Amino acid sequence: MVNLILVSHSEKLAQGLKELLGEMAPGVAIHLAAGLADGSLGTDISRIEAAFEAVTDDSLLITDLGSATMNAELALELYSGNHTITFCDVPFLEGAFVAAVQSRMGQNLDEIILALQSEFQ
To answer: How confident is the model at residue 13 (pLDDT cuts 50, 70, 90)?
Structure first.
């Protein structure tokens, strides 16, 4: 199954979304890079890189706001792992939901991206 990587400024927001997706699409691996080490709001490229290292298959990367996207894109430029990680600029909650359900249904990365583009662009 395609993994999801969620990059958010808020750890609580990301954890809540992961919980919801776990109910709607059980079995889909969801990796979080959210908040800062001290619990405050923000994004940290080292957390994004750690999420990249944790993926077990091709992955879709979704971010919540502008600087999360900038940090995620930088982390993608630095990534040299074995899996394909693709950023998709879609609404955070809705995009993650569609992607998780599509992954659960056995869709591959390209099929999920097409579904997201069809839904949100």
So the answer is: very high
